[in-house]
Amino acid sequence: xxxxxxxxxxxxxxxxxxxxxxxxxxxxxxxxxxxxxxxxxxxxxxxxxxxxxxxxxxxxxxxxxxxxxxxxxxxxxxxxxxxxxxxxxxxxxxxxxxxxxxxxxxxxxxxxxxxxxxxxxxxxxxxxxxxxxxxxxxxxxxxxxxxxxxxxx
Length: 153
What we know:
Distance between the termini: 32 Å
Shape: globular
Strand content: 25-35%
Number of strands: 5
Structural class: alpha+beta
Radius of gyration: 18 Å
CATH class: Alpha Beta
Largest sheet: 3 strands, antiparallel
Strand order of the largest sheet: 3-4-5
Order of helices and strands: EEHEEEHHH
Helix content: 25-40%
CATH topology: Enolase-like, domain 1
């Protein structure tokens, strides 16, 4: 996969994590299946943490979401993958913490469901595969997926 679709962030103990931003995951789905051939449905599983300290205003918010991503072939056959994502945030502005946590959980669920469609949509994010652009070039995968979506006669 091209590094154009990935970003990094620093986590605990200074470890660097590789990830695909949600806008890139959506772009990869559009390139792989065509924007008119896929859709998603996101639902809240639970708001497992929703606390605000009345004295300090400090809040803790956590959401778990489920996303179902559906792809429709040209013959009308639909297949799907679904997965669960979550997010947890803390801070002093209850409204923005709640909104950002909800959006992060929805994005996480969407990206996890999309990744189940295979390498072209970000299922492999290690250096070995990122540097292997010859075997995992998105345009080659796009050609393969378009062939897959055509109806066999």
